[in-house]
Fold:
Amino acid sequence: MPRETKRSRLTIAESSHPFIRLAAKVVRHVRRELSPLHFECILGCLDCCLPTPWSIWEYNQLSPNERAIAETYRQGDTRCPFSSVAGCQCYDKRPLTCRLYGATEALRCPHGRGPKKLLTKRQAKRLMEGYWDVVREEKALLAKMKQGPRP
Structure:
């Protein structure tokens, strides 16, 4: 879940910034790499539904109603506000960390669920490093935008 949801509120002009477009490409690429790793979870299980960071691009994919749910997250919460016994309320738009859970050697499902072949720790690390680079750069870019133009 967005740890700092206020940082994720971008105008259309800001979200069209070249870096945000590049970040979107990176996140979409990572999602494509993970798509063959799909597996079925246990209905009602919330073991992996922890607060997790979102890139700005991922957050901007949420509907206004989903963003309102995201805004209910508070620092220190132990569950994602999208988790419910019926499953994830934003499953198709979930962030990378959620997509990796159960699909890598490092983030195995405690119930033994997962794809036929897990990503190795090295593969997962490569994906996560690229993703975290994007999240950090987005945060820095947004901070710069909030400062406004320098005279």
Remarks:
- The mean pLDDT is 78.
